[in-house]
Design goal:
It is built from 3 helices and 6 strands. The chain is an alpha+beta fold.
Length: 122
């Protein structure tokens, strides 16, 4: 995702999540207190988005490794596809099934993430 799209998306995200932070390398976007639906075991989670500003590939999204959906580990919060260093830091990758388009913006990606989290049942 190009840097201008990242910056533009970041400012839009900050409108909804004022505590959002973007790294100076444009590679990490953190929302420290992302609200969760009631099927989760916590009301909030930190949400981390890893972005590659050099390639047009989908970002990766991570949440608190201890999250549970309806009391169970979710198959979508997949430790098997999460890098070891991220697991050790308490993160787990959300397995998103998306048809990525180079035209997608950071906002488009956030909409997909929010929809995935909102609709997690297991």
């Amino acid at each position: 995702m190009k840097k201008d799209k990242i910056i533009e998306g970041y400012y839009e995200i900050k409108k909804a999540f004022p505590d959002a932070m973007l790294s100076n390398t444009y590679r990490l976007l953190l929302i420290p207190k992302f609200p969760l639906p009631k099927q989760f075991n916590k009301p909030y989670t930190p949400l981390l988005i890893k972005i590659n500003p050099d390639l047009d590939v989908p970002p990766e999204v991570y949440v608190d490794r201890t999250l549970r959906v309806n009391g169970e580990k979710s198959l979508r919060l997949d430790e098997n596809i999460t890098e070891i260093d991220m697991l050790e830091k308490g993160w787990v990758k959300i397995c998103l099934k998306i048809n990525w388009s180079p035209n997608f913006s950071l906002i488009d990606f956030m909409i997909l993430v929010i929809d995935c989290i909102k609709n997690l049942k297991e």
